[in-house]
């Protein structure tokens, strides 16, 4: 099975590793995301070939689990990880780490 990763943020603000990963069925997989900006939330997204993007997790300060997927975040270290336990062929997808920054906004401004 093949996994690809991507990021959603301005250049050099978010780094995801590894960029490409090939895993055997049943393996434990970790995808890391580091960011250099203050954030309100971090999203882990998944896209299967030819399909739309699906939200897996939205994290702000806690660990979350959904079946074989576990997402963690460390705000102080500006780092998040997505763990896939007992990987399956259906896990072959692009995984995206996206951040929502906490920049100040002018009154009435929207994101």
From TrEMBL:
InterPro entries found in the cross-reference section: Ig-like_dom (IPR007110), Ig-like_dom_sf (IPR036179), Ig-like_fold (IPR013783), Ig_sub (IPR003599), Ig_V-set (IPR013106), TCR_alpha_variable (IPR051896)
GO cellular component terms attached to this protein's record: T cell receptor complex
PROSITE patterns attached to this UniProt entry: IG_LIKE
Keyword Repeat among UniProt keywords: no
GO BP annotations listed: adaptive immune response
Keywords: Adaptive immunity, Cell membrane, Disulfide bond, Glycoprotein, Immunity, Membrane, Receptor, Signal, T cell receptor
Record's subcellular location: Cell membrane
Source domain of life: Eukaryota
Region called Disordered, residue ranges: 1-21
Domain Ig-like: start-end pairs: 12-111
Oligomer and partners: Alpha-beta TR is a heterodimer composed of an alpha and beta chain; disulfide-linked. The alpha-beta TR is associated with the transmembrane signaling CD3 coreceptor proteins to form the TR-CD3 (TcR or TCR). The assembly of alpha-beta TR heterodimers with CD3 occurs in the endoplasmic reticulum where a single alpha-beta TR heterodimer associates with one CD3D-CD3E heterodimer, one CD3G-CD3E heterodimer and one CD247 homodimer forming a stable octameric structure. CD3D-CD3E and CD3G-CD3E heterodimers preferentially associate with TR alpha and TR beta chains, respectively.
Protein name: T cell receptor alpha variable 41
Protein's gene: TRAV41
């Amino acid at each position: 099975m093949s996994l690809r990763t991507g990021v959603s943020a301005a250049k050099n603000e978010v780094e995801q590793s590894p960029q490409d990963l090939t895993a055997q069925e049943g393996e434990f997989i970790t995808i890391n995301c580091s960011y250099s900006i203050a954030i309100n939330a971090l999203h882990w997204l998944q896209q299967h070939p030819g399909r739309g993007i699906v939200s897996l997790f939205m994290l702000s300060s806690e660990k979350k689990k959904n079946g074989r997927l576990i997402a963690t975040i460390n705000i102080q270290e500006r780092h998040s990880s997505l763990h896939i336990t007992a990987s399956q062929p259906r896990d072959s997808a692009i995984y995206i780490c996206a951040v929502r920054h906490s920049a100040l906004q002018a009154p009435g401004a929207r994101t």
